Amino acid sequence: WEKEVFLETVQGGEDNFVNLDLAYLSSRSFSDEFGAEISGDLLYVQVSYVIAFIFLGATLGNKFCGRGSRWAMALSTLVLIALATVAGFGVASLAGLIYGPVHSVLPFVLLGIGLDDAFVIANAFDREREGIPRDAEDDGALVKRGSRALARAGASITVTSLTDLVAFAISS
Q: Which candidate among 2, 22, 24, 138 keeps its CA 20 to 30 Å from the CA of 116?
């Protein structure tokens, strides 16, 4: 109703007034404006995810595919970051917070934080190798090395995440 009747009537009558300025407000106007802002930023978010995928895969992996390649890790990192971003917006909407212009920066900030955590985990995984060549490790040794790496990386990820939480809480 607001779009089809109210806005068309008010916007169509603006030219009929000579000495009168017409100001109108509709709840639909707010969502239309921010809907346009959100859809305008989606291209940038998608491009940044593609660039991050190429950067992560090329930086972390020494092969394009096969054993020792980390392209799957790069892809799963980006999927988890995207899911966390969507979940964060969902929780904020559930809490009644509206999507404002400042929120359009959040996917890029979360992408940076998630990429940093991926580099920390990969570095810890590489440092936990016990002098055995990668080809000689069986699945059990990889699981043990992964658990030791996550135990080592977990402390630094927790500290940086808490620091980011405090910084965002202060800025909000």
A: 138
Q: CA-CA distances (angstroms) from residue 53 to 77, 80, 143?
A: 9, 12, 25
pTM, two decimals, is 0.67
Q: Residues 154, 120: contact at Cβ < 8 Å?
A: no
- What lies within 8 Å, CB to CB, of 161 at 6+ separation is 113
93-136 tens-digit pLDDT: 898 887 776 777 788 888 888 888 999 998 898 888 777 776 77
